[in-house]
Amino acid sequence: MHRPLRSTAHGLALTLSIFLWTGLLWTGFLRAGGAQAASPDAGAVARGAYVFQAAGCLGCHTAPERDGAPAGAPLAGGRALATPFGTFFTPNITPDPANGIGRWSDADFVRAFREGRRPDGAALFPAFPYASYTRMTDRDLLDLKAYLFSQPAVAVANKPHDLAPPFSWRFLLPAWQWLYLTPGPLPDDPAKPAAWNRGRYLVDALGHCAECHSPRSMLGGLDGDRYLAGNPQGPDGGKVPNITPHPKGLGDWSDGDLTLMLETGLLPDGDVAGGAMAEVVRNSTSKLTAEDRAAIAAYLRTVPALE
Fold first, then answer.
1. Domain covering 188-307 assigned CATH 1.10.760 in the classification
2. In this model, does residue 233 exceed pLDDT 60?
C-alpha cells in the first residue's frame, strides 16, 4: 500500500527538480541575453575610437608626467591648462559613475558637446572647446560616447579649477555662450567637393584647430576675423603659428609638406614640430587616414590668407 505514495512523492520531487533547473537555466539565458543586448555595438566603438583620435581627447584628459610626478591614468583628467583667465583642470571622462561620466545618458553627452551644458543644466567652461565640438554630427558624438564607455572606469576625483572672479562665476557663462556659441552640426557645402567638406569638418569640428590657432578676445571668444592666423597666447602661454595660406603661414608649403607634418611632425626645413603640436601629431593627426590628412590640406589651402 505504501509503494504508490512513495512513487507519487518521488514523481513530485522529480517534477519540482526539473521545474527549478528549468527556471535557473531560463534566468541565466535571460541574463545572458540582457547583457548581450546592453553591450556596446562593436561598430560604434570602432568608429568612436577614430573620432576619439581625431578629436584629440587623450592628451587633454590625461595628466602628463611632470616634475617627477607620474602620469595620470588615461582619461582620468587632472591635466592643468594655464590660460590668461586662470588654470583649468580637465575632468575625468572615464565611465566611472561617481567621478566620471558613467551616469551620463546619450542626451546628456550630446548636450554637453552641442550646447555646452552639464547633465544638471549648468553651463560648462569653454576650456572644453564645445564652441567647435558643437559642429560634430550626432553619429560621431554617439560613437565617441560608445568608445569612451568601453574604456576602463577610473575612480579619480576631479580637481577644482583655479580661477579668480569674475572668471570663476559660472552663472555668467550663458552670456558668453550667447556671444560665442552657435549650436548645431556643421552642414556640408553642396558647392564644394567632398574632400573640402571633410577637411573643413576635421579642422573646424573634430580637430578644433581654431581653438589654438586663432587669437581670442578679452572675454576668451575666438576672433573670427583672424581665423587660423596664429595666436600669441596659446596653450600654457606659448605662441601658436599662422596656418593660413599666407607667406608667413603655410603659403610656401606644398600639400606633401603639410600631410607629412601631420603624419610625422617633420617640418619642411627639416625641424620637427614641438610643444603642443608634437602632442597633436602623436595622439591625433598621425592616426588619421591618408585621405583625411589630404582633406585637411585641401581645406587649409582655401581659407583666407592672413598675416
1. yes
2. yes
